[in-house]
Amino acid sequence: MIPELGHYALALAAVIAFTQCFLPIWGAYRRDARLMGAAGPLAVAQLLALAVSCFALVYSSVVSDFSVTNVYENSASTKPLVYKITGAWGNHEGSILLWALILALCGVAVTLRGGGLPSSLRARVIGVLGGTSAGFLLYAVLLSNPLLRTWPAPAEGQGMNPLLQDPGLAVHPPILYLGYVGFAVPFAFAVAALLEGRIDAAWGRWVRPWALLSWCFLTCGIALGSWWAYYELGWGGYWFWDPVENASLLPWLTGTALVHSAIVVEKREALKIWTVLLAIGTFSLSLSGTFLVRSGILNSVHSFANDPDRGVFILGLLAIVIGGSLVLFAWRAPKLAEGGLFAPLSREGALVLNNLFLVSIATVVLIGTMYPPFADLLFGAKISVGAPFFQATVLPLVVPLIAAMTIGPVLAWKRAQLGPALLRLWWVALIALAVGSFAAVGWKLLPGIAFGGAAWLIVGSLAEIAERIRLFRLPFGQSLARLGGISPAVWGSAVAHAGFGVTVAGIAAMSLATSVVVSVPVGSVQHVAGYDWKLVSLETLPGPNYISREATIDVTRDGKLIAVMRPARHSFTSQQQTTTDTAIHTMIYADLYAVLGDESGGDAVLRLHYNSGAPLIWLGGLIMALGGVASLLDRRLRVGAPARRRTVTATA
Amino acid sequence: MIDRRHLLYAAPLALAGVAGVSFFAMLKRMKTGAFDPHDIGSPMDGKKIPDFALPALDGGNGFSSADVIAERRPILVNFFASWCVPCIAEAPTLVALAPQIPIWGIAYQDQASDTQRFLSQYGNPYQRIAADHDGYTAINFGLYGVPETYVIDKSGIIRARYAGALTDDIITSELMPLVRGLA
Question: What is the DSSP string of B56-110?
C-alpha cells in the first residue's frame, strides 16, 4: 500500500511540475498576476508530493519490503538500519529521486526567499525550475521508477554493494547533489533573464547567493568524495583523475568562475552575458556529469549499471534543457546591453583573469575526460588519459591563478595601479619566497613551489585583513575595533583563498608521503617515517553482515605509544566481496595510515603509509566552504534587504 | 542580421550540439555492441608478437621479443603504469597469479622512479621488467590502454589479450584454462 501511495505521489509530482513550468511562464508572458502567483503554491505542492514519494521508498527499505524491486536489488534484511535508510539513495533509481527532491526544494527556496524579486522574474525562475523537474520526474516515473513491485515477493534481498556501506557515503550523495542541483537556481535565473531580455546589477545580487550556496555544498561534496576514496579504497591516494571525479570537478571550476563573475555584474554591471553563459554552463556540466557517469559512456572505476535505453532518454532531456537554454542564449544574448567599462588592470580585470584561468582549467579537464570516448567513436582507437596529462596541463594554469589570487583583492575597482598594490604585498611575497625556497632545498623543487604558493595565499589573506584594519599603522585598540567593521564579503574571500592555500599545502605535503609494503608475522616491527609499527595480533571477528579479519598495530615513537591501529578486511557473506577497512590515525599535519592485505603461511601483508599533509587537503576544502558561508552572511546579498548605509569603514 | 556577434553567441549551442549528437551515436552503438568502452576486441590474436628490445628501469637490458620467444613456454606480458588507477587495483591479483605463470611487465610511458615506487608500494609480480618510455612498442602491440595483458604461447604467438584489470573471475574461468591448453 505504502509503495503504491509513493508511486502515485511521484506521478502527481511530475504533473504538478509540468504545471509549475507552463502556468507561471505563460503568465509572465501574458502579464497575468494570477497565473504568475500560481508559481509558489505549485512549487510547494510538488515538494510535498515528492516528499511522500521519498518517504514511501525509505519506509519500504526500512521494513525490508522485498516485493519492491528496488529494495530487493539493493537491500537485505541483515543490513544495519542506518544503511537501510541511506541505501535508499545509494542506487540509481533512488538517487534520481533524491535529485528531483532537491530540485523541488530549490523551487520552494526561491518561492520563500524571492519576495523581493520582480513578479515576472520570480515566476519565470520558478517556471524554469519546474520544467527541469518535470523532465526528470517523467524519467523517474517511466524508466527509473524505484517503487515498482516484483511478484512473487522474494524472501531475501540481494544486498548492497559493500563499498557503499560506509558512513561517509551515506552523507556524500545528498551534499554533492545539493551542490549539483543547487546550480539549477542560477541556471533558472539566467534563462529567466534571457526570457525577460534584461539583466542589471540587481540580477547579479540575486544570483550570487544561490551560486555561492551551491558552490559551498559542491566544495564539501567533492572534498567528502576525495576523502572517501582515500580511506575506503585503501590506495593511499586522494584524487585519481577518474572520469567520475572529473565530472564533479568541472562544475566546481565553472561554478567558482560564476561566483566571481557575478561580483562584477553586481558591482559594475559588466560581464553580464558571460555570467549568464557561466550559469548555463555550470548547470549543464552538473547535468551532463550525472548523465555521463550513469550512461556508461565513460570508463570509470566507479562503475554503475549501464543501460543505453535510459541513456537515450536522459540525453533527450539534456538536449531540451541544455540545448533549449543555449538556443535562447544565441537568440537573446546579442540583444543584452553590456555596460560598465573598466581598465584591464583593475579588480574587474583580475576577476576576468581568474575566470579565464578557471575556464581554461575546466576546458583542459573536459578534453582529457572526453578524449577517450571521442577517440573511440571517431577513430576506433582505445586510449586512456591518465594523471600525467592532467598534471602536465593543469599545473601550469594553477600557478598563475595562485599568483593572481592574492593580488586581485588588493586592486581597486575600475582602474588600478600595479605598483602600489605590489608594494603592499612585498612582505607577503618575501615570506612566500622564503617558505618556497626552504621547502625546495629541503625536499624537492615542485613541492617547494607549491608550498611557496600556499604561503602566498594564506599570508596574502592575512595581509588583506591586516590592511583593512590598518594594523600597526593605527593604535592596536583602534585596529581591533575595525575588525568588527570588515564586511562578511571581505572575510569570505580572505577565508576561502586561505582555505585554497591550505589545500595546496596539503597536496604539496602529500607528494612527500612515504609508504612500505611488507609481508610479516605477528610480533614483528617496521620502521616507517620515524615511527615503529608493531603487528601485535591478527583476529577474526563477526560483523553485522560480514566477517572481519582485523590486525592490531601498536605505533610508537621513541618508545612512546602514539596510536593503536586496527586495519581490517571485511568479507561480505551475501555478495562474496571483500572490502578493506583502512586504519587512519590523524594528527592534522599528517596521517598514519595502515591497510591489511592478504595472509599466507602466518605472514600478513601490511601497507603502512605516513601521509604528510593529507588532512589539510580536506580541511582546506572545508575552510573554502566556510569562506563561502561567511560571504553569504553579507547583508547586500540577502534578497530584499534594504541597502545598508555606508559606514565609516566601508568608505575608508 | 547574422553578424559576428550572433555567430559568437551561437558557438556554445553548436558545441553542445556536436557533443549531443556524438553521445547519441555512442549510445546507439553501445546498444548494438559496436561501442563499448569497457570491453575491446583483439586484432592481434594469432599473430606473432611485434619485434622490440626495451631497456630495463635502470637503463640496462630489459627484455626483447627474442627473449620472450626464447622462453619456450607460455607467459603473460602485462603493460602497466604507476599513473594508472586500475593497475593499482590489478596489482594484488597479479601478485597472487605470479606463482602460476611467469608474468613479464612493460612499464608504459612512465618515469623509472615512479615505476619503482609503484612496485615497492603495490607489490612486484614480474619476473622481468622493461620500460617503454616513448610507447612505440605499445603501439606495435596495438595497446588500448593500461593495464593490458597478453597471453603469449611457447612459439611467441599472441593467444589472447585482456584489456583492463585482470580479475580473479577472468583468471579462473578464461585465462588459466587457456594457458593450460597451451602448455
Answer: -TTSSEEEEHHHHHHT-S-EEEEEE-TT-HHHHHHHHHHHHHTTTS-EEEEEES-
Q: Give the burial string for A435-450 (b: 16+ CB within 10 Å, else e).
A: bbeebbeebeeebbbb
Query: DSSP alpha helices (H): ranges in A333-483?
Result: 347-379, 387-407, 418-424, 426-442, 445-468, 476-483
Lowest mean pLDDT among A158-167, A185-194, A329-338, B122-131: A158-167
Ramachandran angles phi, psi of B74, nearest 5°:
-65, 135
The pLDDT confidence band at residue A377, using thresholds 50, 70 and 90, is confident
Interface confidence, given as ipTM, is 0.78
Task: Give me the residue from A237, A295, A374 closest to B22, CB to CB.
Answer: A374
Q: Which residue of B has its CA nearest to A311?
A: B27
- Distance separating alpha carbons of residues A629 and A637, to the nearest angstrom: 11
Contact A319/B at CB under 8 A? yes
Q: Do B30 and A311 touch (CB under 8 A)?
A: yes
Could you give the 3-state DSSP secondary structure of residue A640? coil
| pTM of the entire predicted model | 0.83
Residue type, A159: G
**Of chain A residues 281-300, which have a CB less than 8 A from chain B?**
281, 284, 288, 292, 295-299
CA distance A20 to A589: 51
Residue whose C-alpha is closest to residue A310's, from A290, A284, A326: A290
Strands B128-132 and B103-108, how do they pair?
Answer: parallel
User: How far apart are alpha carbons B69 and A138 in whole angstroms?
Assistant: 60
- Confidence band (pLDDT; 50, 70, 90) for B146? confident
Give me the pLDDT at residue B33, please.
67
Task: Give me the phi and psi of B58, to 5 degrees please.
Answer: -85, 5
Please give the mean pLDDT across all residues of chain A: 85
B4 touches chain A (CB under 8 A): no
Report the distance separating Cα A233 and Cα A212, nearest Å: 31
Residue A599: Cβ-neighbour burial (10 angstroms; 0-12, 13-18, 19+):
middle
pLDDT at A649 over 50: no
* Interface list for A 47-66 with B (CB within 8 A): none
Cα–Cα distance measured from residue A127 to residue A36, given in angstroms and rounded to the nearest whole number: 9
The pLDDT tens digits of the residues spanning A289-337 come to 877 777 666 655 554 445 667 778 888 889 999 999 999 999 888 888 7
For residue A597, pLDDT beyond 60: yes
How many angstroms separate the CA atoms of A264 and A467, rounded? 22
- From B155's Cα to the closest Cα of chain A, the distance in A is 28
